[in-house]
Amino acid sequence: MKKIVLLFSLLVSSMAIVQAQNDTSKSGFGIRGGASLFNWSGSDISSNDYTNRVGFHAGIYGNSFLGDRFSIEPGLYYSVKGTQNDDMVNSRAVLNYLDLPVLFRFYATEGVNFFVGPQASLLLNSTFEADALGNTYGWETESINDLDAGLVIGLGYNLPVGLNLQASYDLGLTPVFKDSDADVYNRGFKLSAGISF
Fold first, then answer.
1. Is the Cα dihedral 125, 102, 25, 23 positive or negative?
2. Which of 46, 94, 115, 130 has its CB 3.0 to 4.6 Å from that of 105, i.e. a possible disulfide?
3. Taking every annotated instance into account, which residue ranges of this chain make up the domain Outer membrane protein beta-barrel (predicted)?
4. pLDDT for 11-50, tens place per residue?
C-alpha cells in the first residue's frame, strides 16, 4: 500500500511541476482505458506454446504541453498482463500491475501524435491458473519480480470534444521471474480510448 501511495504522490507531483511550466490552455487531465494483448517474450520460451492473453487497463493521466507540438504525459493505470499456454489444461499466468508511464508526445498535426517514454510497473499480485475437470484452479506465486521497468511507444489521435484514441506497445525490459536466469519479459499491445477534461 505504501508503494501505491508513493507512486500516486509522484504522479501528482510530476503533473503539478510540469503544469507550472506549460501552455495551460491545451493542458489537462483525463481518464483512459481499453483492451490489452500481452505475452511473454524472450529467448527462453521457444520450447513453450505461449500465446497472447487478453486483459485490460484503465487509469488516469495528465497531459501538459511544453509548446505547440510537444507534451509530457504522466499516468497511473491498473493493468492486467501475463500469458496463455495452449496445453491440455489451458494454463495461464495472470499478472496485475500498477503502471506508471511518463510519455513524451509529438503532435504531427492537431490530431495525430506519436509518443514514447519509460514506464515503471509495480506488481500488485500474480497467480497461475489452469482448467481441469470443468473447474478453474489458481495458486498465487511469489516468483514474479515486484518491479517491471520498460518502454512504451505508440500512436495517438485526438478527436473533438476531448476524446482520444491510441495504440501502443509495452516493451518490458526487466525479467518476469526474480532469482532466475530465465530470459522472459512482459510484452504486449494496448488499444485505448480516453477523454480529457
1. positive
2. 115
3. 19-177
4. 555 544 444 444 444 678 999 999 999 998 887 665 567 7
Q: Are the C-beta atoms of 178 and 30 separated by less than 8 Å?
A: no
For the residues of 123-174, what is the DSSP string, one character each? Answer: EEEEEEEEEETTEEEEEE-S-B-SEEEEEEEEEEEEPGGGEEEEEEEEEE-S
Q: How far is CA 40 from CA 47, 83, 84, 86, 112, in A?
A: 12, 6, 9, 13, 30
Predicted pLDDT at 44: 64
The pLDDT score that the predictor gives to residue 19 is 45
Which residues, given as ranges, of the chain have pLDDT below 50? 5, 15-25
- CATH code at 2-196: 2.40.160.20
Q: Which set of grid coordinates corresponds to residue 124?
A: 500488485
pTM confidence score: 0.83
Name the CA dihedral angle for 50, 54, 55, 57, rounded to a multiple of 10 degrees.
110
Sign of CA dihedral 107, 108, 110, 113: negative
Rounded to an integer, what distance in angstroms lies between the CA atom of residue 180 and that of residue 7? 27
Contacts 24+ apart (CB under 8 A), 20-24: 21/64, 21/66, 22/64, 22/65, 22/66, 22/71, 23/65, 23/66, 23/67, 23/68
User: Where do the structural domains in the chain lie, given as residue ranges?
Assistant: 2-196
